[in-house]
Amino acid sequence: MSFPVRAITLDLDDTLWPFAPIGERIERVLDEWMREHSPATAAMFPIPEMRALRDRVFAENPQLIHDLSTLRRMTLQRALSESGGDPALADAAYDAFHAARNQVDCYPDSIDALARIAAHLPVAALTNGNADLQLIGLAGHFRFQLGAREHGAAKPEPSIFHAACERLGVAPAEVLHVGDDVEMDVVGAARAGLRTCWINRDGRPWPHRDPQPDLHFETLAALADWLDAHSHRRPDTAAA
Predict the structure, then answer these.
(1) pLDDT reading at 88 higher than 70
(2) Is 146 exposed, middle or buried (0-12, 13-18, 19+ CB in 10 A)?
(3) Could you point out which of 30, 91, 102, 108 has its C-alpha 20 to 30 Å from the C-alpha of 224?
(4) Listed residue (218, 210, 163) closest to 183, CA to CA
(5) In the listed set 85, 101, 117, which residue is the last one of a domain according to the structure?
(6) What is the pLDDT of residue 3?
(7) In sequence order, what are the residues at sequence separation of 6 or more whose Cβ sits closer than 8 angstroms to the Cβ of residue 118?
(8) Three-class SS state of 96
(9) Is residue 117 within 8 Å of residue 8, measured between CB atoms?
């Protein structure tokens, strides 16, 4: 399949790196931090209870689902308050979370593939999460990073895809969105008028539903190969 692509929007979690190890690290780091700085909180909210509290805070605040950082802060503030700890510690606890959140181990193919893709076309990161590409050290491959918190709405809302296309200076029909999530990335982007690429590292079957992805690869390297084969090159007319 061949079609015009003048820019890429790229998901981060579970596309460039697996999120599960990050989530486990976050829980461990926060537990250790609480044990040192607020033992009563650690005793009342060991890892399973802190996870359950986080889930409750998320469920009670659906209007903030685009702002995972605020929801995380609210979780930490509530844990400290309910355990008799000092709520003023929430900022320092969040800093520990943020540092752990941005320790990522990319998939083996990701960094080389990202460099190859960015050599072809302008790439924008488009994420519902709170990864910080500057802190991670990959920002140089991207034209910009647009997060759901910054935008005010999360994927699969069409507006976040359209905002990225506008900043890229490219019509949605000529932007390829790349990601792992069927609903958030493929269906959401397609309904917003973008071309789509499903990165399916687990070899899952596509659910029997439309719209289906324009491209389907098991690795990001395979997408870079496809761009090589179809001679996509960075257009002079893309927005700076």
Answers:
(1) yes
(2) buried
(3) 102
(4) 210
(5) 101
(6) 87
(7) 141, 142
(8) helix
(9) yes
Looking at 66, 101, 136, the residue that finishes a domain is 101
Q: What are phi and psi of 190, to 5 degrees?
A: -65, -40
Q: Determine the structural domain holding residue 46 and report its residue range.
A: 20-101
Q: Which of 189, 187, 191 is nearest to 175 (CA)?
A: 189
Torsion of CA 128, 129, 130, 133, to 10 degrees: -90
Residue 88 buriedness (CB in 10 A; 0-12 / 13-18 / 19+): exposed
Mean pLDDT of the chain: 94
Give me the mean pLDDT over the 84-105 stretch: 97
Coil, helix or strand for 198?
Answer: strand
Which of 72, 81, 102, 70 minimizes the C-alpha distance to 38?
Answer: 81
Residues 134 and 215 in one domain: yes
Cα distances (Å, whole numbers) of residue 80 to 7, 23, 31, 235 = 45, 20, 12, 52
Cβ atoms of 48 and 164 within 8 Å: the answer is no
| E-assigned strand segments in the chain | 7-10, 123-127, 144-147, 175-179, 195-199, 215-217
Residue 55 and residue 162 in one domain:
no
How many separate domains does the chain show?
2
Amino acid at 107: Y
pLDDT at 168: 98
Work out whether strand 123-127 and strand 144-147 pair parallel, antiparallel, or are unpaired: parallel
Q: Is residue 232 scored above 80 in pLDDT?
A: no
Stretch 105-112: mean pLDDT: 97
Helix, strand, coil percentages, rounded to 5, for the chain: 55, 10, 35
Q: What is the pTM of this model?
A: 0.91
Q: What angle do CA 226, 199, 126 make, to 5 degrees?
A: 100
